[in-house]
Specification:
globular, membrane, LeuE-type, L-lysine exporter family protein LysE/ArgO, amino acid transmembrane transporter activity
Length: 208
């Protein structure tokens, strides 16, 4: 039986975990401003998030933690990849030739999908917050409330990614000047470097 109270609690919890400009959201916003493959990006984000949420709700968190070397591998691989994205953003900001109406947004569909999957699945925060944390909290409501919890969490994910995809496209007129793209690139670069450093400090160093 559907439990509205559980669904609303799950909605609030999931939204609190998703909201925030991390590597994935920064990539979505940049591509949205450049009007580059926005619909596939939104769909991929939603599908990945729903699969990870479902994995957590149905008890996959403990299994993830039990895989030898999984979190260290994801942490260090993710940190290096995110740091590379930061360096790439700084490089784009320093080269006027790369600053067009669509900015430095990725235009190749294959590269868009690969990059998006990487910033999603190679980010250990995604596994820790979505699969493990949300999965653990959902268990408090009991197995009979799983579907209600999953429905609430899924709704939050769908609404968030649709919202930032549409919102970023609305920002496109503001980015007709090269200076706007420079500012965005610098901000993204700083965000990526800070995220990579945080990953290494909070999670990576403990595996050395």
């Amino acid at each position: 039986m559907f439990n509205t109270q559980v669904a609303l609690a799950a909605f609030s919890l999931s939204l609190s975990q998703i909201v925030g400009i991390g590597p994935q959201n920064a990539f979505v916003i940049r591509q949205g401003i450049g009007h580059s493959h926005v619909l596939p990006i939104i769909l991929i984000c939603i599908v990945c998030d729903l699969l990870l949420i479902a994995a957590g709700v149905f008890g996959m968190g403990s299994m993830v933690l039990s895989i030898p070397g999984f979190l260290p591998l994801v942490t260090w691989t993710g940190a290096v990849f995110i740091l590379w994205l930061g360096i790439k953003a700084f490089h784009s900001a320093c080269k006027p030739a790369t600053l067009r109406t669509e900015g430095g947004s990725v235009r190749d569909r294959g590269e868009v999908i690969r990059t998006l999957l990487a910033v999603t699945l190679l980010n250990p925060y995604v596994w820790l917050d979505t699969v493990i944390l949300i999965g653990s909290l959902s268990a408090a409501y009991g197995t009979e409330a799983r579907l209600s919890f999953l429905a609430g969490s899924s709704t939050a994910s769908v609404l968030w990614f649709v919202a930032i995809g549409v919102f970023s496209m609305k920002l496109a007129p503001l980015f007709r000047q090269e200076r706007s793209w420079r500012v965005l690139d610098v901000m993204v670069g700083i965000l990526m470097v800070m995220t990579a450093a945080s990953l290494i400090q909070q999670h990576g160093l403990q595996y050395l």
